[in-house]
Design brief:
The chain folds into two domains: 3-72; 81-239, no CATH class. The chain has a five-stranded antiparallel beta sheet with strand order 1-2-3-4-5. It has helices at 3-23, 27-30, 36-78, 204-222, 224-227, and strands spanning 92-96, 104-112, 115-125, 133-139, 145-152. It is an alpha+beta fold and 242 residues long.
């Protein structure tokens, strides 16, 4: 807690305490009344609420800054800083899409000299072994993956958690891929007849992530004009099998 917040808390507590002293000048007499304990409890609750409120006020800014820093780091993982000269964190637009469960997607738009060089957005891969897997995906104007990262999951430690870059480089293999390479029908794990490796003893998790990244590519392909990427659609979209 910084010095200013400490001073505010100290001053507030002192004022409250002096008020209590004035209220209870004759404590011996007050103890004999039925409302003595009630007033003491109410005063204690007031002080506690005041302290908690001021502490929250002093820390909320720091928490928000930390969240922004974490998001900025994640965005840098999926869109290289060399590709843009704008404030990627705050350059966003929200697109409605009936094929997305939430109904809309907030997209960060990367630009260099006012030309769109890529987009990044959060995406939910459904069908994980222990529930949905939250991803961050970066895609370039040609419809190729710039980067993919898992930002939240509940998969089994030692098996499904290999989707994390700290446990395995597996997810880095999506970089450079698109709906043209491989073709949409091949966006499956090898066990299902596709091109992507599964994990030993864990097929469900990588299957969900592969489908999730493919779904993110399809989303961008549906919204190329709105995103300012290019006219038309990238080759391969018409071959998507739903």
């Amino acid at each position: 807690m910084n010095q200013e917040v400490r001073h505010v808390v100290k001053s507030a507590c002192q004022n409250c305490w002096h008020g209590m002293l004035r209220e209870f000048d004759d404590l011996d007499e007050r103890r004999k009344t039925l409302d003595y304990q009630t007033k003491i409890l109410a005063a204690a609750a007031l002080v506690a609420s005041l302290v908690l409120g001021i502490v929250d006020l002093g820390t909320s800014g720091a928490i928000a800054r930390r969240q922004a820093e974490d998001m900025q780091a994640t965005l840098s993982d999926v869109i290289p800083p060399s590709l843009h000269d704008n404030d990627l964190l705050n350059s966003t637009l929200t697109l409605s899409d009936a094929m997305v469960q939430a109904g809309e997607v907030r997209v960060h738009v990367a630009k260099r000299q006012d030309a769109v060089t890529g987009v990044a957005f959060g995406w939910v891969a459904t069908g994980g072994y222990s529930g949905p897997i939250r991803l961050m995906i970066g895609i370039d104007p040609a419809g190729k993956v710039l980067g993919a990262r898992v930002i939240a999951h509940a998969e089994t430690p030692g098996l499904g958690d290999k989707i994390e870059t700290g446990k395995s480089p597996w997810i880095l293999g999506f970089t450079g891929l698109s709906l043209e390479h491989p073709l949409p029908a091949r966006w499956k794990v090898k066990k299902d007849g596709g091109d992507f490796d599964q994990f030993a003893g864990a097929t469900i998790t990588p299957r969900a992530v592969v489908a999730g990244v493919a779904g993110a590519l399809e989303f961008v392909a549906r919204h190329r004009l709105e995103l300012g990427l290019a006219d038309g659609r990238p080759a391969g979209l018409e071959k998507i099998v739903h």
